[in-house]
Amino acid sequence: MIERPITDWLPLTKKEVEKRGWDELDVILISGDAYVDHPAFGTAVIGRIIESEGFKIAIVAQPNWKDDLRDFKKLGKPKYFFGVTAGCMDSMVNHYTANKRLRSNDSYTPGGEAGYRPDYATTVYTKILKELYPDVPVLIGGIEASLRRVTHYDYWQDKLLPSILFDSGADMLVYGMGEQPLREILRLVKQGVPLDTIRNVNQISYLQPASEPLGEFNNWDTVEISSHEICLKDKLKYAANFKVVEVESNKWQANRIIQKVADKTLVINPPFKTMEEKEMDISFDLPYTRMPHPKYKKRGPIPSYEMIKFSINMHRGCFGGCSFCTISAHQGKFIASRSEKSIMKEVDQIVNHPEFKGYISDLGGPSANMYQMKGKDESICNRCQSPSCIHPVICSNLDTSHTPLTEIYKKVDAHPSVKKAFVGSGVRYDLLVDDFNKNNQDGNHDIYMEQLVTRHVSGRLKVAPEHTSDATLRVMRKPSFKYFRKFKEKYDNIQAKHNLKQPLIPYFISSHPGCEEADMANLAAETKDLGFQLEQVQDFTPTPMTVAEVIYYSGVHPYTLLPIKTAKTKEEKQNQNNYFFWYKPEFKDWIRKRLHKLNRPDLADRLLKSQKQAAIDKIIGESESAKAKKRKNYFKR
């Protein structure tokens, strides 16, 4: 294996900066993740964009915030600004389980070691920089900053926090996917405009004195939401704020949002329109090495990199708008897709990786099967305010053709160096059920599904029905469980046709707002009837900028302001989770007693009856049903 020169990576040290012949840096990025030079890692994408605009850029990855702060000083002071990100995850989600237990590992650190980033990393890093270099502007971004850009509920402190701009002292925040606003910002600072005075760029947020008038830019209209102080006193006002923020974040012609916080005005400029194919290609085609920085070699592999190093992200965004998910809040509900040419170019790069053995682990995206999907008439999308394109029904204007995706699968399959290309991302199964998706007019969904099941399943296929209760699913913005049953039937038929044994792995969430304990018992019974023994279940975590988080905190749905019950105590959450493990002897007695207490002995019977007895009862039931039918027909005569 030929060693690549260290200058192929963006510099991490003073020595690497000097090797490039630089005596000053224009921008320094501080990141909570280890530096992996790959398009799946935000720090690498932002660093490469800054480099592509002609700036001298270096990265300080996972700086020590506990010592004499030498990591923050080692590269000196940048000419233009510091960029700060907590990394690819909110630092609190990264650190803690849904039960607020400290995690023992960190997937974005060499060796998977925990403890290399602080809680609330964006705020901690920014405050340090402001103390050390008070005259240098700080630009914050990434998922933590993006989801905390406005008053938000923090589950880990169990209280409302103001915009992260207020707590951190940063000069500007870029929310969502940062390529478009960042390029605009870089061009302005290159022209001599100080970063902390920029006000007219889309998709940025900043604070200004409340006494200062708002600037008039780009014919933006302005909508004001309830102040942080009002939200602290009134949960309904906080909930109502969320609807405004979600709607404006997913419009192509959005309004500017303002919110008072203390003696400041928080200003959130409208987002850019979703990136076009050409823009996506430029971002993914930057000169990444596609590998972690060589300095980590002795510290062990970086788990998140190991998981994706032979995978390809074909698109961004998700039009599902699920209540518990942050994807649409950060990436947007509209799909930004790469060209086939760019994707195949990345396939060529992967097969040339020295460790590649012929298997691509994922051809996917946030939802695997949304590639190139968009509105048939984009002028309708332009006016749309719905947070989801597929809930409660699939929009008749949505082109859900799977043909472009099927063609990509076939082309990758035909590559001489690829033995198998799998789909590891979750498949949005409801798009493939004709009873739910009425837009399958030419059978392209069936062709896609045949291709997927026969060629691209690595042992098992992941899907996410999330629940079985229709009431809970409505709160989740997910379709009825009956459509999962129809999908499973279709999936099983294809498997039988081709003599395959690839189990479906359904994902479910416990303790989600709108879910009662009996709903979880019923979920366990329904999945048992379908032959599933669930080994891992996700307990709901209220993450900022989601509908479910607002319900959890306020007790009401932000769109209706009507009450919705939510399991909150440790006991309530544990009770819901226990039903998943009906097959374990230690839970059987608890389940029986608990369901009798809830006056649901029928569910206890369904859950605790052996499969053999259940099969006998089913045969008897069918026999009795047949006898009753005969009697009915006899009396009809």
TrEMBL record:
<keyword id="KW-0479">Metal-binding</keyword>
<dbReference type="Pfam" id="PF08497">
    <property type="entry name" value="Radical_SAM_N"/>
</dbReference>
<dbReference type="InterPro" id="IPR007197">
    <property type="entry name" value="rSAM"/>
</dbReference>
<comment type="similarity">
    <text>Belongs to the UPF0313 family.</text>
</comment>
<dbReference type="InterPro" id="IPR023404">
    <property type="entry name" value="rSAM_horseshoe"/>
</dbReference>
<dbReference type="InterPro" id="IPR006638">
    <property type="entry name" value="Elp3/MiaA/NifB-like_rSAM"/>
</dbReference>
<feature type="binding site">
    <location>
        <position position="325"/>
    </location>
    <ligand>
        <name>[4Fe-4S] cluster</name>
    </ligand>
</feature>
<protein>
    <submittedName>
        <fullName>YgiQ family radical SAM protein</fullName>
    </submittedName>
</protein>
<keyword id="KW-0004">4Fe-4S</keyword>
<feature type="binding site">
    <location>
        <position position="318"/>
    </location>
    <ligand>
        <name>[4Fe-4S] cluster</name>
    </ligand>
</feature>
<feature type="binding site">
    <location>
        <position position="322"/>
    </location>
    <ligand>
        <name>[4Fe-4S] cluster</name>
    </ligand>
</feature>
<dbReference type="InterPro" id="IPR020612">
    <property type="entry name" value="Methylthiotransferase_CS"/>
</dbReference>
<dbReference type="InterPro" id="IPR013704">
    <property type="entry name" value="UPF0313_N"/>
</dbReference>
<feature type="domain" description="Radical SAM core">
    <location>
        <begin position="304"/>
        <end position="584"/>
    </location>
</feature>
<keyword id="KW-0949">S-adenosyl-L-methionine</keyword>
<keyword id="KW-0411">Iron-sulfur</keyword>
<dbReference type="InterPro" id="IPR022946">
    <property type="entry name" value="UPF0313"/>
</dbReference>
<keyword id="KW-0408">Iron</keyword>
